[in-house]
Design a protein that fits this description.
The complex is a heterotrimer.
Chain A: H1 15-51, H2 62-75, H3 86-117, H4 120-135, H5 138-157, H6 160-165, H7 177-201, H8 205-212, H9 218-229, H10 231-247, H11 250-255, H12 279-286, H13 293-324
Helix pairs in contact in A: 1-13, 2-13, 3-7, 3-10, 4-7, 5-7, 7-10, 8-9, 10-13, 12-13
Chain B: E1 52-64, E2 67-79, E3 82-86, H1 93-99, H2 104-107, E4 110-118, E5 121-122, H3 128-134, E6 135-138, H4 149-160, H5 167-180, H6 184-187, H7 200-213, E7 218-222, H8 230-243, E8 248-252, H9 256-262, E9 265-270, E10 273-279, H10 280-285, H11 290-296
Parallel strand pairs in B: 3-8, 3-9, 6-7, 7-8
Antiparallel strand pairs in B: 1-2, 1-4, 4-5, 9-10
Helix pairs in contact in B: 4-5, 4-7, 5-7, 7-8
Chain C: H1 31-65, H2 88-119, H3 123-138, H4 141-152, E1 163-164, E2 167-168, H5 173-197, H6 201-209, H7 214-225, H8 227-243, H9 246-251, H10 268-272, H11 278-285, H12 294-325
Antiparallel strand pairs in C: 1-2
Classes of the chains: A mainly alpha, B alpha/beta, C mainly alpha.
């Protein structure tokens, strides 16, 4: 190795060499992400190509469509791709939207409490609790949901009258929207709390002090100045939580109910007891069918949808943060 | 509070006169060598037209743990005049200032003995938020909130009441607060402008406007010009002198010339002790205490 | 005009009998503000209660159902809880995945963080890398799993799993743990970056000033200094790895037993074969899974929870140790 003259240690750990090695690794990781996007989109493309925009729309029973798709590989009569994902998308919107809204409110109050009002003993207790809740594996949440929350809802919250009223359409057993939203909220709120508390405690002390010195009480000061100044981080944390919620598959596969049913808020309050199945759990439930090419295309199309909606939310979050920076709160 | 207003209501604010129109802002670093060669121009030559006792600092000591930051200080704070607290760093003047609206309670476990009275009521009996509205404070570093100029002022008015006030209803108060701080003409066309995009001097005047919007009886200023350039400093000094008729002004400053220019009374503190309290002219020109003489002649620097 | 000289303070300052509240209380707030604070307390206590409920409930179920023999007996085919054996393969599988996953994620993550903080040129590549890491953090694990099914069934990577007449099975410890490592990567990178960024510039300059190269400075000064944060990142990543289910269901778990590839030398035969993990076992043993043996699911979930708790405790310990060491003034 004499082509490069190294002043000090020789070529083995020279800066240029290390930089090149690390750079290669970085390029590899970037390439891996690109490969992932390309692979997922290409594999999902046939499903989009056959359905066009109606992929996203309603029409028919999704579960029937899925089984027709996976069986079409064996019949030899040509692949079937017909798939209308709206009930799954709608379920994703309801469950993730509900959990993120609930989680946002919960996390804001808890973070304000932690940074400003909780006495020392309480914050010494609450901080590890939040960290613990964030680290419990989703399958444990799912198990407790299935064995504790779902039976409770099914046996105590849903009345016989309610069960009878929809008997012909769907059976209400406790696997429900509300169970999914509750457990998902418990899963994502701690994530938001940790981001929000970081942001709130790094708000410029001068702003808070300035407000207190004008006779505004501590509660309003932290909400009107602290939370306001932390808004960009709050948006970032919410987007992250939303991404986590959309991607949550196993827990939701366990407790949201296994039918691709679209709960309809127009039915009245009963819709929160109705089962449904979001997009990500659908992949888990159907992953055995991967060997059937049309089923594989459909599942990858769902994955593509998840990837791109995640990207869209990140983009929207970044734009919102930029708009909020107008007044200089960074 | 209206009953406490002076019988002889102040007419127009006293004219601001500068002795040296050529050089309105003497270099801040020029420290005179002797007390008698003190060259700074006095802004308020006319003695205050009236003065009423607003606050009374009575044998106040403040301890942080075992360390005494302020030792038995007694001072009157009067509306109609500017009181400057001077002294080297760490002499307790800022601690004293912050204790006047109980802001010390927020940061550390400070113990206060003696009493501070606002209109003859011990401030510890006044609910802190109410007290802080009557005794507002402006900080060393301009700290406008990350919102528009309008909202910065409106914030104080909105968060005082429990009811939500509409924007239109707040406009007169916001405008008058800005006008009192001499900022209205500069910002009237873009009240929606982000406050943090203003210049440093404008930001500090906005902070003063914000403090005035609460209609306080006492205005505390903690080295309000130390982060500003000479021009902005001059503008704010003018403003402070003009404000003294409506509110009692207490200013902490490191800048001796500034204290001389704008203060009516000056208190010199050293290591927590109040060494000398006197009218500005006397304290600077014929100090009675050895340490004061040394400090104003630059010995303490 | 009155002016007086203040002589030294009077000898006896009055003993103040005025009752003072150390910090502004909420007594004078408006009703809405006080209700808000009450809501804070409610949510804080609710979080503590939920965490306590999870731990206590699983503790009770664990003590009731966990037999130590289950940790040493592999799963067996059987229809009742008595016949189906234990979950030793799942337990060992989790350990294997943790070790393999973190031993990939840690070095790669640290290397990327070092490149980002210490080299980071060209700027555009650094920006892209940051975005890549963020994007990977936002990719649902089920999408990573699907991506894994494509790359690990390719013939080029066939040596990493079982293959039969040119058809690559694609499920193996290699496949699962590399995707799990990818999932843990952003946590390691973020934590390590934080640690490196916290080291003031003058420390690096002091090392350069005595003639050390950037590479040597990084290896001898920066990385040892950032060790607590690297350890934290590693443990967060480890928690993510042992807690993940979707990737394992798709890329590893075919049965609840190891299925080593015949003819390969130990331990490659096991690592190339399919297997299972605790999360996979809990998922399958839950009422929504294929085994449906809730007692075993509780027992396995309890073991999993203990591992998570131990990991949390270890993270805390690292934090506390790191705080004791002290740091530079900036």
């Amino acid at each position: 190795m004499e082509e490069e003259l190294q002043p000090e240690y020789g070529p083995k750990w020279s800066d240029q060499r290390v930089e090149r090695m690390l750079g290669t690794l970085v390029v590899f990781i970037v390439g891996l992400l690109l490969a992932l996007i390309v692979v997922v989109v290409i594999n999902g493309w046939p499903s989009f190509a056959h359905n066009g925009l109606s992929w996203f729309g309603p029409g028919g029973n999704v579960d029937d469509q899925l089984s027709a798709i996976s069986q079409s590989a064996e019949t030899g009569a040509g692949y079937i791709y017909t798939f209308h994902a709206w009930p799954l998308i709608w379920s994703t919107i309801l469950i993730c939207g509900g959990a993120v809204v609930l989680g946002l409110v919960t996390a804001l109050f808890i973070s304000v409490f932690l940074t400003e009002f909780a006495p020392a003993w309480m914050s010494n207790l609450l901080r590890p609790v939040v960290r613990f809740l964030a680290s419990v594996p989703s399958v444990i949440y799912g198990l407790l949901g299935v064995l504790v929350l779902v039976p409770f809802i099914g046996n105590h919250l849903i009345t016989e009258h309610q069960k009878a009223s929809v008997a012909g359409i769907i059976s209400l057993t406790g696997y429900s929207l509300i169970a999914a939203v509750i457990v998902l909220t418990i899963m994502i709120a701690p994530l938001m709390v940790s981001i929000f508390t970081d942001a709130l405690s790094s708000v410029k002390p001068g702003w808070l002090e300035g407000s207190l010195a004008l006779g505004v009480n501590r509660w309003r000061t932290i909400w009107k100045i602290g939370v306001r100044a932390a808004r960009p981080a709050i948006v970032a944390g919410t987007v992250l939580a939303l991404a986590r919620a959309i991607g949550e598959s196993v827990m939701l596969a366990m407790i949201s109910g296994s039918t691709a049913f679209a709960p309809n808020p127009a039915d009245g309050l009963i819709f929160i007891y109705e089962p449904s199945r979001p997009l990500a759990p659908t992949i888990v439930k159907s992953v055995d069918q991967l060997s059937s090419p049309p089923a594989k295309a459909t599942l990858f199309a769902i994955a593509t949808f998840l990837l791109f909606s995640g990207a869209m939310f990140s983009l929207a979050g970044a734009l919102t943060r930029r708009a909020m920076n107008k007044y200089g709160a960074a | 509070m209206e009953s406490l207003a002076p019988d002889t209501a102040p007419s127009a604010p006293p004219p601001i006169r500068r002795l040296d129109p050529q050089d309105p802002t003497p270099a801040q670093e020029a420290v005179p060598t002797t007390a008698t060669s003190f060259v700074a121009a006095k802004r308020s030559i006319a003695a205050p037209q009236f003065s009423i006792r607003r606050m009374e600092v009575d044998r106040v000591s403040i301890h942080y743990g075992a360390k005494a930051a302020v030792k038995g200080v007694s001072l009157p704070i009067r509306q109609g005049e500017v009181l400057a607290l001077i002294g080297p760093s760490g002499c307790g003047k800022t601690t004293l200032l912050r204790s006047l609206n109980r802001l010390t309670e927020l940061t550390a476990a400070a113990r206060l003995s003696g009493s501070i009275r606002l209109d003859d009521v011990d401030i510890r009996l006044i609910e802190p938020t109410l007290l802080r509205r009557r005794v507002t404070m402006v900080f060393q570093q301009p700290n406008p909130f990350p919102m528009s100029v309008f909202d910065n002022i409106a914030y104080v008015l909105r968060e005082q009441g429990s009811r939500r006030v509409r924007k239109k209803a707040l406009e007169p108060q916001v405008h008058s607060a800005l006008a009192r701080a001499g900022l209205f003409e500069e910002v009237k066309d873009n009240l929606k402008h982000p406050a943090l995009k203003l210049s440093g001097g404008q930001q500090q005047r906005l902070c003063i406007a914000r403090a005035l919007a609460a209609e306080p009886e006492v205005l505390l200023l903690d080295e309000p010009c130390s982060a500003l350039d000479p021009q902005s400093t001059a503008v704010i000094e003018d403003l402070i002198v003009r404000l003294r008729d409506d509110v009692a002004v207490v200013i902490v400053t490191h800048n001796l010339q500034q204290a001389y220019r704008i203060a009516d009374h000056v208190a010199f503190m050293y290591l927590g002790d109040l060494v000398e309290y006197n009218s500005a002219t006397r304290l600077f020109n014929s100090p009675t205490q050895q340490r004061t003489a040394e400090y104003v002649s630059g010995a303490f620097g | 005009m009155e002016s007086s000289v203040v002589t030294p303070p009077p000898p006896a300052p009055p003993e103040s009998k005025v009752p003072t509240k150390a910090v502004e209380g909420s007594a004078t707030w408006s009703l809405v503000d006080r209700l808000g604070l009450a809501f804070c307390w409610f949510l804080g206590l609710l979080f503590c209660a939920i965490a306590a409920a999870i731990v206590i409930y699983l503790l009770i179920q664990g003590i009731k159902f966990l037999k130590l023999s289950e940790l040493t007996t592999p799963a067996a085919a059987g229809f009742t809880e008595g016949e189906s054996g234990g979950f030793s393969d799942a337990f060992v599988g989790t350990l294997i995945l943790g070790v393999m996953g973190i031993s990939m994620a840690l070095p790669i993550g640290v290397a990327i963080a070092v490149w980002l903080v210490e080299y980071g040129r060209p700027r555009a590549l650094a920006r892209i890398t940051e975005m890549t890491i963020e994007a990977i953090a936002g990719i649902p694990s089920i999408v990573l799993a699907l991506f894994g099914t494509v790359i690990f069934t390719s013939t080029a990577l066939g040596f990493l799993s079982r293959s039969n007449e040119g058809v690559v099975f694609g499920r193996s410890f290699f496949a699962a743990s590399s995707m799990l490592a990818l999932e843990a990567l952003p946590l390691v990178v973020a934590s390590t970056r934080e640690g490196l960024n916290a080291i003031p510039r003058h420390v690096r300059e002091a090392s350069y000033a005595v003639g050390k190269t950037k590479a040597a400075t990084t290896r001898r000064i920066l990385l040892p200094t950032a060790r607590p944060q690297i350890a934290t990142g590693g443990m967060l990543g480890l928690g993510r790895i042992i807690g993940d289910t979707a990737i394992i269901v798709v890329l590893l778990g075919a049965t609840q037993n190891f299925s080593p590839v015949e003819g390969a030398p130990f331990p490659l035969d096991y690592l190339r074969g399919a297997g299972t993990s605790l999360t996979n076992f809990v998922y399958e043993a839950s009422p929504t899974g294929n085994l449906n043996q809730p007692q075993k699911a509780y027992a396995a979930a309890f073991v999993l929870l203990l591992m998570v708790l131990a990991l949390n405790a270890a993270t805390d310990l690292v934090h506390r140790r790191a705080r004791k060491v002290g740091t530079w003034s900036h």
